[in-house]
Amino acid sequence: MDADPPCACSTLRRATRAVTAAYDAALAPVGLRITQFSVLRTLARLGPLPVSRLAAEIALDRSTMGRNLDPLERRGFVRFAVGERDQRERVAHLTPEGQAAIEAALPYWRAAQQRIGGLVEGASITQLAERLKSLSAAQACGRRDMPLVRIDVLQGKSAEYRQTISAVVHEAMVAALLVPAEDRFQVINEHPAENHVFPESYLGITHTQDIVFLQITLNAGRSVELKKAFYKAVADGLQARLGLRREDVFISLVEVPKENWSFGNGEAQYA
User: Which residues are catalytic?
Assistant: First the structure.
């Protein structure tokens, strides 16, 4: 029996602790922790924020945010005011002393950035952040996207050929777009040559009668990097499993708001 791969959750949690410890150690000379530094920089970037919004921006829960804000307030780096719209709301403001603390901490933070960058390429960190951002956004709306896939091919292709296209597209959506494996809605159509219309060349890309049109309707929110990864996964998969030219893989993503779906019963299940 093959061993299971390392648990992604446990691995990322350990990595997060190690990275946090490295930044905390780097910032120790100025008496800040990385979470406190993030609070100050977020206020500098966005201006005064309600505590709830500030917590969301830094991905902290309210209690953890409170533990970070208290020492910052005692040191005079932040101050609080009553919300203008809701007087029950506390709004955090960056003070001049807080801005000075940011400036003092920046050289130490940059040193930590350089150290981490020597271990992990910046592009890899960005790619991981983009993928996890989509996962977080999906969890925020209760579940990930359920796409509707339309596959159009030239008439006369075998059932096995069509089924392989179906499988490659679905596997790429699961891997690159984080779609649940069980969410598989597809419509596959065949067209006679006279109804299979396309230019022989477009944007320097030549097409043949084997061109496959893929139109995927899904909830809005996917990053450009995830979309690019999906396009590549589909083209590479179809070339590897069917010998289909990568130039003959045409993909259109149609993003819609979540209230644009009804899965039955005349109801808007995502609204």
Answer: 147
